[in-house]
Design goal:
Elements (H helix, E strand, L loop, with lengths): L2 E5 L1 H9 L4 H10 L3 E5 L1 H11 L12 H14 L1 E2 L16 H10 L3 E3 L17 E3 L1 H7 L3
Parallel strand pairs: 1-2, 1-4, 2-3, 4-5
Length: 143
Amino acid sequence: MKDLVVIDTNVLISALLKADTAPRQLFRLCLQQRVVPLMGTTLLKEYEEVMQRETLFVRSPLSGEEREGFLDAFLSVCEWVGVYYLWRPNLRDEADNHLIELAISGGAKYLVTGNTKDFRGASLRFPSLAVVTPRLYLTQRGR
C-alpha cells in the first residue's frame, strides 16, 4: 500500500531550489505515483501564494514557467481531501493547523515538513500521524 502524505509548503520551496535533495526526491516519488500526496483547498492556496513570490526563487534553476509546470504535474497526482472538521491542534504556528487537519481528514500517515519543531507541544495528539523531515521520511521508508 502506498503512503498517504501531506507535504508542507517549505518542502515544496526546497524542492524547487535544489535538485539533489531529499525534498526533490520526495516530489519525484509522488510524480512516479509511489507516494500519494494529499491536497486540500487551504494547502493549495498556500502553495499558489508562495509560487508567486519571485524573490524566493532567485536561486532556483527553474524558470517561473517550469515551476508552474512542476506544480501542475504534482497536483495531477494528488488525492484531493475535503476538510469538514477543524481539529485545531493549537500548534505553535497557528497557520500550520490546516496541515494536521488535512492529514487527519485524509488518513495520512506522514506530515512531511522542514520545521518539525513547529508541530511539537500541540494541545491535541495524533499518534497515527508522524511529523517527519523529508530526509527522515525517505530513510524510514527505505528510499
